[in-house]
Amino acid sequence: MPTIHSVLIANRGEIACRIIRTCRRLGIRAIAVYSDVDAKARHVRLADQAIHIGGSRPAESYLRIETILAAARQSGAQAIHPGYGFLSENADFVEAVEAAGLIFIGPSAASMRQLGSKAGAKELMQTHGVPVVPGYTGEDQAPALLRQQAELIGFPLMIKAAHGGGGKGMRVVRSLSEFDESLSSCQREAAGAFGRDRVLLERYIEQPRHIEFQIFGDAHGKIIHLNERECSAQRRYQKVLEESPSVALDEALREAMGAAAVAAGKAVGYRNAGTVEFILGADRQFYFMEINQRLQVEHPVTECVTGFDLVEWQLRVAAGEALPVAQSEVKSRGHAIELRLYAEDADRGFLPGSGVLHRLSLPADGDGVRVDAGVEQGDLVSLFYDPMIAKLIVHAADRPQALRLAADALALCDVEGPASNIGFLERLIAHPSVTEGRIDTGYLDRHLDQFTEQPERPPAAVLAAACALHLATEREDSLSLSRQGEDRHSPWALADGWRIGQPGQQPISLQWRGHTLDFVIEGHADAFLLHLDQTLKVEVVRREHGSISLRLGESSDAEVLRLAARQPGHDFLIHHQAQRYKFHPARPFEFEGSQDSGANTVRAPMPGRIVAIQCQTNDQVSAQQVLLVMEAMKMELSLRAPRDGTVAEIRGAVGDIVEADAVLIAFEEG
């Protein structure tokens, strides 16, 4: 039985850092690989050795099988861990690794080939008694036949890429009139993401829940499951929040689904870590979706509730060891939740972002909080890869405590540089659909405005807290300066608006979401009048690390509010009613020029590649008509006409790489 002493990690970012952590604990040498843009990445800094494998695009580096094998030979690695994504579910890669005399830390190529096609996997599961969703999985992909099968299945239905995953190549079609366009788009996305455009059709289960079971198999024929994770909080089929255990399962249903998951693994002689994904309908009937043949992004929630290190299990199983526990020994303790922190802008349709993380504040590990991050402050979030910043995982005695712990942990997070989804996550975990445990996979897409709507102006309590922090900061700064002078007690050194013979007034300006808010305050840092639409009396009752308590109003029984508040860098960050408000000090009453509405152009919202142009010069187009499709950070972006008009110029061609804000289509003036 071989002992693994060195592992090459054929991946990057968060998962590479995660694998390195376990390797280091076990005394295993960890070898990283990196592309041009990743030369200074965190996983490179953490590894015992790092080898350059090519250009920044995945096809030039992390997807190059021979280059990765050459790096393994150069480093003397004994095994290769694929992480997730890239080559992790590529059977050709597995065979090449084994042919090179190396250990592949994952399932066999044979099981990958059986499961690599969603269509073939469904047929296989059906023969082994695992329930599947009715649909069409045939090889005949003639559009006319697919359209005919769609009519037989009925609407709504789902078109899914037969090869691949991660929410790519999936479309819900609700009527026959939508089918042709959805099929074309799905096939194009599937071909771009997975190299094959084959699709399958299946009945769309309305308002389902997504329940998945972690399975593990060893080389001795033993397969067990480690209970479930619920991943029903999704946006465009991408998981946003994962938790274990699921509130939707009782013990009888958990046992039935667990048995089906093990049966699915046995159908292909599964080895190492895998995840069997199910749809759970409102009628409590469940159906097989697919087996992900790798470690999942959300594996930490299973680690938290079971106490097992799944990466360690992967390494031991790959070395030929038997699974360390029997099914009866798998217990779930407490409740765990994972949230995915991304560089994406919720206010602009969740467009992925890129750029340097000028500031990155994350909570420290410990006391039920775990952070798995692939970047640190000063690192680059690259446009070439998934824009994940970190995974925030919490573990508590029960679900309500876990949700409170997640809220507290999120309040400690802050990103400056690319936009982030922190505010969206805060609203998500406070939403009744989540707190009451009734969210389904389509809820976010149906009600996204409930999670992204922003107030026109911050509440008065929030403005009062921001002004109090601003005044306190000015006072501290002035005291610091006065200590350098001759008279430390001079009233002229204090920035409190004090004047001879009249109440002190001073202007304060704060920038919020691109707007400048101007106020006049009267008083000092501990008690002042804030002149808004009406005058508000503010008294600072208590100021401590991470919070501020204010008495708002005139009477002695006026309302006292405690708000989470802190000062990351020069900014002020206030939390109130599951909403975060971030302010930046500005010059009072500064003039703001108007911005071009851009109604005569269509611009690239971010760096990416043009994959389709659906208009020509001189075309008459309608507002919101799709004119061009871009691919960026593993997703398709449809760019639409800003108004009715005539296309004057198209600046680019299919395949071109364009920069953010580049003009792609210009309209005639009108």
TrEMBL record:
Residues in Biotin carboxylation domain copies: 3-449
CDD domains: biotinyl_domain
Organism lineage string: Bacteria, Pseudomonadati, Pseudomonadota, Gammaproteobacteria, Lysobacterales
Name of this protein: Biotin carboxylase
PROSITE patterns: ATP_GRASP (PS50975), BC (PS50979), BIOTINYL_LIPOYL (PS50968), CPSASE_1 (PS00866)
Domain ATP-grasp stretches: 122-319
Subunit structure: Acetyl-CoA carboxylase is a heterohexamer of biotin carboxyl carrier protein, biotin carboxylase and the two subunits of carboxyl transferase in a 2:2 complex.
InterPro entries given in the database record: ATP-grasp, ATP_grasp_subdomain_1, BC-like_N, Biotin_carboxylase_complex, Biotin_carboxylation_dom, Biotin_COase_C, Biotin_lipoyl, CPAse_ATP-bd
Species annotation: Pseudomarimonas arenosa
Domain of life: Bacteria
Function: This protein is a component of the acetyl coenzyme A carboxylase complex; first, biotin carboxylase catalyzes the carboxylation of the carrier protein and then the transcarboxylase transfers the carboxyl group to form malonyl-CoA.
Pfam families recorded: Biotin_carb_C (PF02785), Biotin_carb_N (PF00289), Biotin_lipoyl (PF00364), BT_MCC_alpha (PF21139), CPSase_L_D2 (PF02786)
Cross-referenced PANTHER family: CARBOXYLASE:PYRUVATE/ACETYL-COA/PROPIONYL-COA CARBOXYLASE (PTHR18866), METHYLCROTONOYL-COA CARBOXYLASE SUBUNIT ALPHA, MITOCHONDRIAL-RELATED (PTHR18866:SF33)
Ranges where the Lipoyl-binding domain occurs: 591-668
Protein's pathway: Lipid metabolism; malonyl-CoA biosynthesis; malonyl-CoA from acetyl-CoA: step 1/1
